Amino acid sequence: MSFPSLQEQLDVITANTVEIISPAELEQKIQHSLKTGAPLKVKLGADPSRPDLHLGHSVVLRKLREFQDLGHEAILIIGDFTAMIGDPSGKSKTRPQLTAEEARQNGASYFEQASKILDPHKTTICYNADWLGKMTFADVIRLSSHYTVARMLERDDFERRYRSSEPISIHEFLYPLAQAMDSVHLRNDVELGGTDQKFNLLVGRDLQREYGILPQVCITMPLLVGTAGEDKMSKSLGNAVCFNDLPSDMYGRVLSIPDNLIENWCRLLLPHNGEGRRAILEGWEEEPRSAKRRLAREIVTQYYSTTEAEAAEEHFDRLFVHKKAPTEIELTLFSEPELPLVDLLLALGAAASKNDARRMIQQNAVSIDEERILDIKAVITLSEEPKTLKAGKRKFFRIATAANS
């Protein structure tokens, strides 16, 4: 197989990385690949602790895709077994463990979602329960003998918890060892991960050496800052843009990021050789609003299509620039001719509770046919002619009596 030159590959591989352990070994592995014609085996692990992938996951997935484009073998590990242990990375307390069924259910859609970035026809997908689940207790004891407690406590989160007398369960020590066994089993050349995975990646490197395998090169990628501009992207923090978000929601959430994230998001989330990426990087400081709109279109296009990205932009402009209702709103019919506004918001799913509905009304966030409703005790009269109800900035509903059907 023909590969790009050593320098061409290094230019692509090293872009946007935080750390490579070690650059000299990476060069040696690429040179060996060029000499033998054998592709590098590049591994990325993903524990299905949640069923959805977000743009933060795409940073390492895009680096894996770059290895694919260079002609190397991409291996995506679905950590259905290690998810039952729970990755302790960055945690201040023991992480809840998933059942085998929960881990498999969450992992079921991972490959489909990851294929929005990876070439599915050139990706090897593995479930680590296939080998970890076959290990006996004697195997685990032998595995544990290769690492010391002192080495484990070098890990930042373990050290913090140990010094502050926070409990550390023994099974958490097994997580990096189990993930390292993936590298032993696969005999991969390179492993990718976020900066929070550095310790786990290094254990894999150490364990390969213990088992007589040429140690993997570890490449860490930056953690993507979430839409609020402060913490790393996380669904639990409510600052995530997910692969499966609707195009209009994805577009709007990207536009919500602070201007100072435009360059970073562009470099981490768009293809390194893309025309859109170059245009954004060249002009974002002079025209941040235009650059952000271009970034939002490019990201939606990656996960959907150009047509849907343009439709998402039109939808956003109609709602927030021109202050008009969407062109298509599903009609909801009610049998009652009159309903308290609080009950109506709850029935439509516009509010999570009656208290939430009252709060929305008090905050001037509810209108019917563009007329603000400020009375929390308001009763809405419905007719055969549909009315348009707006709740908050983005929720629109068409409502009428059942007689309209």
TrEMBL record:
Chain ranges for the short sequence motif 'HIGH' region as given in the UniProt record: 48-57
Catalytic activity, EC: 6.1.1.1
Main localization, broad class: cytoplasm
UniProt keyword annotation of Signal present: no
Localization per record: Cytoplasm
Residue interval(s) of motif 'KMSKS' region: 232-236
GO biological process annotation, one example: tyrosyl-tRNA aminoacylation
Catalytic activities: tRNA(Tyr) + L-tyrosine + ATP = L-tyrosyl-tRNA(Tyr) + AMP + diphosphate + H(+)
Gene Ontology CC terms: cytosol
Superkingdom of origin organism: Bacteria
Pfam families for the chain: SYY_C-terminal, tRNA-synt_1b
Binding annotation for ATP: K235
Complexes and interactors: Homodimer.
Family as reported in the entry's similarity comment: Belongs to the class-I aminoacyl-tRNA synthetase family. TyrS type 2 subfamily.
Function as written in the Swiss-Prot or TrEMBL entry: Catalyzes the attachment of tyrosine to tRNA(Tyr) in a two-step reaction: tyrosine is first activated by ATP to form Tyr-AMP and then transferred to the acceptor end of tRNA(Tyr).
Protein name per the record: Tyrosine--tRNA ligase
